[in-house]
Design a protein that fits this description.
single chain; 103 residues; mainly beta; 5-stranded antiparallel sheet; two-stranded antiparallel sheet; 1 helix; 9 strands; elongated
Amino acid sequence: MKMSAEALEWSSAPPLDASLPYVFTNGLLFNGLNSQCGHCGSRIPPPAMRGQLHRLADDRCLMVAKGYCEACRSLTCFNFVIESSDPPKIHNLEMAPAAQRLS
């Protein structure tokens, strides 16, 4: 079975857990989020999340990740800016999560 470019990108990306917890300069920790599939709404467990967190400023980071949904075999993009407030503010860079069915 041939993999789509997006599926190949997901499989070669590091596990998101490798970037967690993310520690802001003020000491606040971001431990991750409860991810849902953008196609069927099923929970995406942490091991199925791949991507990275990148520092934008002392109080902000960029999360670029994709999650694989076992229930419907699709990928959902998670592109967020996270601010180090308590609780952290999460800004979705897309109006709605995009899902792509893999089969």
